[in-house]
Inverse folding.
């Protein structure tokens, strides 16, 4: 008889940041990418371009992360590719206008603009410098991915049981356990 017990700890892949029980990745690598290429990079890493379910998530991204980087234009998952003026998040999170943070006069669809970026334009005073703009999806930007946590440190306990009758015909049971660590985020 044998059995396996798995225990794991929620965690993010290296290079990703844990916040609000999600993993976040900020790519300011060159070359910058179109919205579609950025979304597909996020999907290859089990995520999507970032959605914001709460104002806290939205502001954490800008205040704690983007401000420290040189790049000023970042794709997020919001888009109205399917139906003009109907905005949806690429990961399926329902779009809540109360969580939106458009720049004044945006979205304006100025150049056939169906994808949304966070635009840090370093205005002074910086009132509108971390707000959203709809931009043509072919524009080249940095991007932010979001994904569920994975299991990083994961250990496996293997049980083996041996049972037999000894020379006096009494029942003997032996339990052997071994613990193995499985490394890597799934
Ligand atoms: C406009 C934005 C537009 C952007 C395109 C800006 O000058 O205000 O609405 O999306 O140009 O890069
Ligand atoms: Ca615009």
């Amino acid at each position: 008889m044998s059995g396996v017990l798995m225990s794991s700890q929620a965690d993010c892949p290296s290079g990703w940041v844990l916040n609000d029980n999600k993993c976040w990745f900020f790519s300011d690598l060159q070359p910058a990418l179109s919205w579609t290429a950025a979304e597909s990079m996020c999907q290859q890493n089990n995520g999507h371009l970032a959605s914001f379910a709460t104002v806290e998530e939205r502001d954490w991204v800008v205040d704690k992360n983007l401000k420290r980087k040189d790049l000023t234009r970042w794709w997020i998952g919001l888009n109205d590719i399917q139906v003009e003026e109907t905005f949806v998040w690429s990961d399926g999170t329902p779009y809540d206008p109360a969580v939106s943070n458009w720049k004044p006069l945006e979205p304006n669809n100025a150049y056939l603009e169906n994808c949304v970026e966070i635009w840090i334009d370093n205005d002074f005073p910086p009132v509108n410098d971390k707000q959203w703009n709809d931009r043509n999806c072919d524009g080249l930007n940095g991007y932010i991915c979001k994904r569920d946590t994975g299991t990083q440190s994961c250990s496996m306990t293997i049980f083996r049981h041996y049972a037999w009758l000894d020379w006096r015909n009494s029942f003997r049971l032996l339990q052997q356990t071994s613990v193995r660590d499985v490394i890597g985020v799934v």
